[in-house]
Design brief:
single chain; mainly alpha; Cytochrome Bc1 Complex, Chain D, domain 2
Length: 227
């Protein structure tokens, strides 16, 4: 059965209008979905302010006491414990092989630490206060109770790490803590990685696809009033 040119043109017009209607339906358009890969980077530096009251040791407060060797041993375990954070990080994530310390780390505490000054407004911090700041900022967790054994242990181990640290202008570049994490956008079920792009279908109204190079039937508005 041979279709007339007018009938064929009507079919193409209906097809174009249907395609446009589907494209405009955001709920049905697979390309209108929000990109799940656009989540904020958990390793990106934040500029929000830290409450200094959570960092400064209250007057009259003292760290828990105990055998120093035992505290250092316990502190080393905590130094590598990612369960202390809410984002999978540990102290060792940033400070593996003495990386990512500022030059001032070699100085006796209390001393000035740039990011503590910037985010908490504290001019000088003690070592235990620095531990509390790191719990709040990079590790995105709650600070330890000031009299807890965990804080005393981490402070004792950090003091041992400080003894082995030597400030150097040629210090090794710290490893990217995000490099060890699984990329949520690299998963097999990632809709952003689909091979078949539902939006890449050939446009039936494209003049280049018309072998007969006829005038584009979608260019004329069938609803327009005739002059």
């Amino acid at each position: 059965m041979k279709l007339s040119g007018k009938y064929t043109q009507s079919l193409l017009v209906m097809l174009c209008l249907f395609t446009a209607g589907v494209a405009n339906a955001a709920g049905m358009n697979p390309c209108a979905m929000s990109n799940p890969c656009s989540a904020k980077n958990p390793c990106a530096a934040k500029s929000d302010r830290i409450d200094p009251a959570l960092v400064k040791r209250p007057a009259g407060t003292h760290l828990a006491k105990g055998n120093r060797d035992e505290l250092v041993k316990e502190g080393k375990v905590l130094w590598n414990d990612t369960k202390l954070s809410s984002n999978g990080m540990s102290c060792n994530t940033c400070h593996q092989n003495n990386a990512a310390f500022s030059a001032s780390f070699a100085e006796p505490y209390p001393h000035k630490v740039g990011m503590v000054k910037e985010r908490a407004g504290i001019s000088k911090v003690r070592l235990d206060e620095m531990v509390q700041f790191c719990m709040l900022a990079p590790m995105a967790a709650k600070p330890f109770p000031w009299d807890s054994r965990e804080l005393a242990a981490l402070t004792a181990y950090a003091a041992e790490v400080q003894k082995t640290y030597k400030a150097s202008g040629t210090a090794k570049k710290p490893k990217n803590p995000c490099g060890a994490m699984k990329n949520p956008c690299a998963m097999q079920g990632n809709p952003c990685a689909m091979k078949a792009n539902p939006c890449a279908a050939k446009n039936p109204c494209d003049m280049k696809q018309n072998k007969e190079k006829a005038a584009n039937p979608c260019a004329a508005n069938p609803c327009a009033a005739k002059k």
